Amino acid sequence: MREIDAKEVTKTVTRLFLEANYNLTDDILDALKKAEKSEESTAGKEVLRQIIKNADIAAKEQIALCQDCGAAVVFLEPGQDAHIVGGDLNEAINEGVRQAYEKGYLRKSMVRQPFSARVNTKDNTPAIIHTEIVPGDKLKITVVPKGGGAENMSRLIMLTPSAGRQGIIDNVLKAVDEAGSNPCPPLIVGVGIGGTAEKTLLLAKKALLRKVGDHNADPEVAELEKELLEKVNKLGIGPMGYGGRTTALAVNVEVFPSHIAGMPLAINMNCHSARHKEAVL
Amino acid sequence: MPKIINLPLTDKVIAELKTGENVLLNGIIYTARDAAHKRIVEALEKGKPLPFELKGQTIYYMGPTPARPGQVIGSAGPTSSYRMDIYAPRLMEEGLKGMIGKGQRTQAVLDAMKKYKAVYFAAIGGTGALIAKSIKKADIIAYEELGAEAVRKLEVENFTVTVINDIYGGDLYQQGKAKYRISI
């Protein structure tokens, strides 16, 4: 059994949310630069140029890449032989969020009682925490500041088995097409297939964490990802919806076995400011 | 070269704006998001005072990050406009002439834009650090308790926006997509 201090968790969560909000990851930045070169649409090209310039300013001046610093989504992977000491783990994460959003001049976007009063919690808590226990004695923390514009374009479709592979393609294309400019393309499209309703939504969100250019280890799924990306980029939406060839930088698919009666499909999109950072304690 | 416009928008300037044009806005604009729109429309219904005179003005759908010491404003990019669609026609009826946001609008908003001769611009979503450079002054003028959603009066200099919907029915989102769409 290895001990991990809750204070270390807080410190790490704070650091990761700050880094994620100021710096695009290299894979996203490289993909944007590549797209800027290949984009045929003049308006689309100009949008990509501005996005790259924005990333440069944000990193240099430590200003949030986007005013929407997101809901604080946290993926936790504690090893089964790790023991958190010195405090409540969930509270340690929330404290990390609190400190990052306060110290980092980040926008606090969480409101309580969403259907009525909608009062801002003023520190961007509570974090949205997903925990999956894994072998080992470490603790992996992945933070995802998730913007509202792209999140609002999420879809859950309870497809049935007859829909098949084509049903997946049709519905992903429909979701991206209908979302248009709203989720701030070029996008990372996360797709979950299988499991149950909540499982497939989680798969779709997890799919956003993958590096641009990496594919699912299953060749059949990787093939589906390539086909989806190619087709999404034929929609013509382009950077910020002004028209063009770059509607998505990646389509990432995660698959889980499903019940004989179903084939749930979830789509979760990330904007071009696709922010996420991870650390292992 | 982008067209330079001094605010407030006049009917003459609006008549000359065409879908797809890049424009540099200079002058005063006001921020309002969902919560502020809700309050503004409620104030209109109850005949109560408004945070600012809507006639001839331009609203930017934006809620910034807090400014660091010495900064005018934090990251300040546009939010999705469709959430304001339910309120926008009422504001245009009161004389609102310009809207800045991102993303497509409903038919009801497009119809109101034609009827009241108003224009819809987009700023580039997710470029708030860059956009902040063109904001020279920012003051909260109403609903301070809403925090990021409070109404702010902004003075902008060469704020880059693109005309999405002009008063002639042009729609950059439709036209842009049609131009680059490859049928599958």
Quick overview:
The complex is a heterodimer of chains A (281) and B (184). Chain A has 281 residues and is α/β, with parallel strands linked by helices.
Q: How are the SSEs placed, and which strands pair?
A:
The complex is a heterodimer of chains A (281) and B (184).
Chain A: E1 2-5, H1 6-22, H2 26-38, H3 42-61, E2 71-78, E3 82-85, H4 89-103, E4 111-112, E5 119-120, E6 128-131, E7 139-146, H5 148-151, E8 155-159, H6 164-179, E9 187-195, H7 197-207, H8 219-232, E10 248-258, E11 263-270, E12 277-280
Parallel strand pairs in A: 1-3, 2-6, 9-10
Antiparallel strand pairs in A: 2-7, 4-5, 7-12, 8-11, 9-11
Chain B: E1 3-6, H1 11-16, E2 22-31, H2 34-46, E3 58-60, H3 88-93, E4 98-101, H4 107-116, E5 119-122, H5 128-131, E6 135-142, E7 151-165, H6 172-180
Parallel strand pairs in B: 1-2, 2-3, 3-4, 4-5
Antiparallel strand pairs in B: 2-7, 5-7, 6-7
Residue-averaged pLDDT of chain A:
97
What's the overall geometry of chain A?
Answer: globular
Gyration radius of chain A, to the nearest Å? 19 Å
Q: Going across the major beta sheet of chain A, what is the strand order?
A: 6-2-7-12
- Report the portion of residues of chain A in β strands: 15-25%
Question: What's the β-strand tally of chain A?
Answer: 12
Number of structurally distinct domains of chain B: 1
Largest sheet of chain A: 4 strands, mixed
Mean pLDDT of chain B: 97
Name the structural class of chain B.
alpha/beta
The general outline of chain B is globular
Total number of beta strands of chain B: 7
Helix content of chain A: 25-40%
Order of helices and strands of chain A: EHHHEEHEEEEHEHEHHEEE
Main β-sheet description of chain B:
5 strands, mixed, barrel
Low-pLDDT residue spans of chain A? none
The largest beta-sheet of chain B arranges its strands as 2-3-4-5-7
List keywords for this structure.
heterodimer, A: 281 residues, alpha/beta, 2 domains, four-stranded mixed sheet, 12 strands, 39% helix, 25% strand, B: fumarase, five-stranded mixed beta barrel, globular
